[in-house]
Amino acid sequence: MRGADTHVEGADPDVLAAVDALAGRWGGRAAETERERRLPDATVAELLDAGLLQLAAPPGFGGPGHGWPTLVEAARRAARACPSTGWVVGVVGGHAALAGRLPRAAAETVFAAGPRQVFATASAAADGRLTRVPGGFEVAGRWRFCSAADHADWFLLNVHCGDPADRLLVPLAAGQVRVEDGWDVSGMAGTGSRDIRVDGVFVPEALTGSLSHCFAGRQPSDGGPSPSPYYLDEVPFLPYVNSCVIGPVLGCAEGAFTACLARFSRDAGGSRPLEQPPVRDGLTESAAELACARHLYESVCARLHAAGTARRALSPEDAAAIGRDRAYLARLCVRSVHRLVQLAGTAAHFTGDPLARHWRDLQMMAAHRDLNWARSAEAYAAAAFTAEDAGGPGGAGPVHGGAEPVHGGAGGRGQAT
Q: pLDDT of 176-206, one tens digit each?
């Protein structure tokens, strides 16, 4: 999309160039990706060979040590060509940072083969359970929405042992789970977010980690100043992992706009759609909404990167504002693309049409827990406003303290991860 590639502070230009060089291949496979309901093996090999699934892997385990903007901007650019590929780059690729936040023995185990691996997460337990046994836990049952399950080397299970508030992160190797084909959906089909089943696997306690500890802020392992720009193993992780979705969402909407513009640029039987005032007006309004979405995207990237480089935890107000902005970004993208589909008419609803594919995928992305407007608005209002500061009807004033950040993503439930 013309003018869309503004500079994102902290994003590595070499990584972005690698994504741009491969994006045409992923776009060419987008129909196959949707039809097969998984990324093609060739795409996964390209992602691994280019280091695009290792962007968030910690340097201590062989990772490149990139900051958060590199991950999310790479996902955005990939999603323009193939939204499912963008999702896997940003959301699944972000799980490498989470794997590095496991207790040392567990992290050494999962990274024993190096960072060139796929880490899937399983947060939505259908009937999955964890039972304490001597020396550790027995894991059994089924989990849902495990993106890139067909290609995963490790699954990071989010599960509790009796008390839902006391959750553990439990890594299982791919050979310890069965991938089941339950992913028959109308949008984001290519993410392969399948069910997994575990048949009574023993996991030593030393290889599990408290979820709250894995997400908490921490000091550098040597107790001194951080030796590298990598901060994803030190800052409180939840605002970062919950915000990975904004790259794929924005990129998907931008890809839809490009597909729509290409449609209208063609001379359809002499009709010259781009010369028709309703088409020009609709395209202009959708472009304006995407421009606003990009401003929110850049603001979220800048705030998270600034807090990360400073090793600073976000205040409750900042975390709630970021949740608000990522949810509103998704709203703007959905409105923009909905208008494009209306402009294109019936022709935009054929299964193989690129605009139709991006529209289906965007609606599925926008249903993610971390983009829920009602939940995000409630958290923001609790952090920003109080009755005594509001000054009566129509008034509002800031407060200090209050809301917890919105939970979801790898730490949430009921969503593709």
A: 999 998 899 999 999 999 999 999 999 999 9
